[in-house]
Amino acid sequence: MFDSDHSKEDEILQTDVKQSTEQVMEARHSVRKYDSSEEIPRGKLNEILRLAATAPSSWNLQHWRFLIVTDPAQKERLLPIAYGQQQVVDAYATIVILGDLEADKSALRVYNDSLEKGYINEQVRDTLVAQIEQAYQNNPQLARDEAIRNASLAAMQLMLAAKAKGYDTCPMGGFDREALIEAFRIPSRYLPVMIITMGKASVPAYPTSRFGLDELVIENSF
Fold first, then answer.
1. Comparing C-alpha atoms, which of 209, 197, 208, 207 is closest to residue 33?
2. Residues in the chain with pLDDT values less than 50
3. In terms of Cα–Cα distance, which of 185, 197, 208 is closest to 86?
4. How many Cβ atoms from other residues are within 10 Å of residue 63's Cβ?
5. pTM for the structure as a whole
6. Helix (H) or strand (E) run with residue 89 in it
């Protein structure tokens, strides 16, 4: 579904207004009211997802998966699951961020790739894969913690990438996880971490107040 036409995608991306990282970060605000008539071209949507997937992850296991909901009927199914928050319908794309609870199963693939590229040798690969497998087997809580932690890194990167491409987003934690899993047949391997709506704002978002560094920063120790 999301295979891109490179020539069209390149043309789309060349029209992007370049912004600094600082400008993008300061311009991003949570938007809850979207223009439902505005679509996101597939090339831009693919590029946003590609950029999101460049996020860092523990052991490079890339714990995130993106369930993209753009079909109007599917978004209507999602509406009661999201406790009636209209943004899931009006946004062009509603994205369920999933965390991989069995990311250790990706270890061999990840490190075989590094081996083939000459970044590591077989001994390092075997050591890392064994380390990962042991960590997941010995600490059941680790899988959930890592799934949430690393998928959240990709989620933040997705929102910044969307803003850089001219689109607005809103992270949502208010939804019925069990109903979501059932309605969209999400395999037990994946944990719904959050929902992100994405599209064009119909009403400009306002910047929220932020605590000053004097409240947020602790130097060296409490």
1. 197
2. 1-15
3. 197
4. 28
5. 0.89
6. helix 87-90
The token pair that represents 101 in the structure block: 């609870």
Structure tokens belonging to residue 143: 């899988």
**CA angle 53-54-57, nearest 5°?**
90
Tokens at residue 212, please?
A: 């000053």
Say how far apart CA 116 and CA 138 lie, in whole Å.
29
Cα dist. 85→54, 78, 80, 109 in Å? 30, 9, 8, 39
Three-state SS across 97-152? EEEECCHHHHHHHHHHHHHHCCCCCHHHHHHHHHHHHHHHHHCHHHHHHHHHHHHH
d(CA 181, CA 129): 30
pLDDT tens per residue across span 13-70: 444 556 899 999 999 999 999 999 999 999 999 999 999 999 999 999 999 999 999 9
Q: Give me the pLDDT at residue 12, please.
A: 39
> Which structure tokens are listed for 218?
């602790």
- Give me the pLDDT at residue 158, please: 98
Three-class SS of 21-88: HHHHHHHCCECCCECCCCCCCHHHHHHHHHHHCCCCCHHHCCCEEEEEECCHHHHHHHHHHCCCCCHH
**pLDDT score, position 19:** 81
Helix (H, G, I), strand (E, B) or coil at 96: strand
